[in-house]
Amino acid sequence: MAKVLVLFAHPRPDRSEVNYPMFETAKAVQGVTAVDLYARYPDFNIDVDAEQAQLTEHDVVIFQHPLYWYSAPSIMKEWQDLVLEYGFAYGQHGHALDDKAFLNAVTTGAKSAAYSEEGMNHADLRSLLAPFEKTADLCRMTYLAPFVLFGAGRALEEGRLDVHRNAYDDLLKALVAERLDLKKAARADVLTEDLYEFILKGEPV
Length: 205
Known about the structure:
Helix content: 25-40%
Number of helices: 8
Largest sheet: 6 strands, parallel
Shape: globular
């Protein structure tokens, strides 16, 4: 069984119709450690030693957040700057994260059509998340395609929230049970579409 760490970042969880319910889903999955970074560090005074120790104890790391300016809310950048130190996460002697899996679980305001060469952003979502992928590469982690809910602002009224939460639950349980095809997931554009093609039945991989 794998241990999964979900690091959740949303500056206004009280106004979150999608991300906070997803976080609640993550907290309920056995084998998942779900952390609200803004609640843990309201003053941004991040305990680097504690965060590094927590990282070493987990096999999969998920950054869960809304897409803010093609990136993540500010505390997640602060966390990366402080926690992913040379000599710990990367560099000649920085092997603490070797072979761990990493992915972004994100929500976007725009619909999926905006995330294409022809769309408003002139790039697909995975390309826009390239800084996270390159961070994973530097830390010798396996970067998986993002798990995404496009058009999240209307998801609740359109009845898509529960479907997405159930899919997130299935994804997390597959990661814990080591039944996600990591090689296939690493090559995909996103995990949301055809998610169940990436989840294996039977023995862990």
